[in-house]
Amino acid sequence: MAMPEPVIGSVLLSPDQIRDRLSELAADIDAHYEGRDLVMLGVLKGAMMVMADLARLLSHDRMEIDWVTVSSYGNSTRSSGVIRMVKEPDLELAGRNVLVVDDITDSGLTLSWLVANLRSRSAASVEVFSLLRKPELVKVEVPIRYVGFDIPPDFVAGYGMDYAQRFRNLPYIAILNF
Ligand code: IMP
Ligand code: MG
Predict the structure, then answer these.
(1) I want to staple 105 with a disulfide (CB 3.0 to 4.6 A). Which of 40, 76, 133, 178 is the partner?
(2) pLDDT at 22 over 90
(3) Does ligand 1 have an atom closer than 6 angstroms to the CB of 93?
């Protein structure tokens, strides 16, 4: 079956808007984790850009970075809720303060599954950072401590986020039109 061919539509968030918001959230994260250990756990591949930029804005000097890959069986624009961890964290997370860094929360199914999975590894704390959230599509409430932007229920790409693996390299976040 041929994939629909999307075109890049309007720019939702510019590089400047993203950077300004990340600076604000970095200050909150620094304050919260001051004097405590911190593992930033990025969700590949979508969180690669936001992790790189957010990590550089933090002054926390003992933080560690790790990655997981989760896969959700579904089509390319919707997750099914059937989730599996394709790449486990390299670090031992028991007793650690884990901040999950994700690109976007749509239904919330992926993050709620991931948070439950991390809690079962006896992390000292598990908090969530999501650059984007689509409040109108949330099916499962996930307590997200740090949200970059609430956005409309459109399909977006760029700044790490893809459609069929494309568009991750865009420095801005755009709405895709199908
Ligand atoms: P959820 O489980 O429905 O919350 O879906 C979360 C994952 O689906 C995100 O981490 C993204 O990888 C992907 N996703 C959801 N919405 C979009 C979008 O608008 N653009 C690109 N990826 C998306
Ligand atoms: Mg993701």
Answers:
(1) 133
(2) yes
(3) no
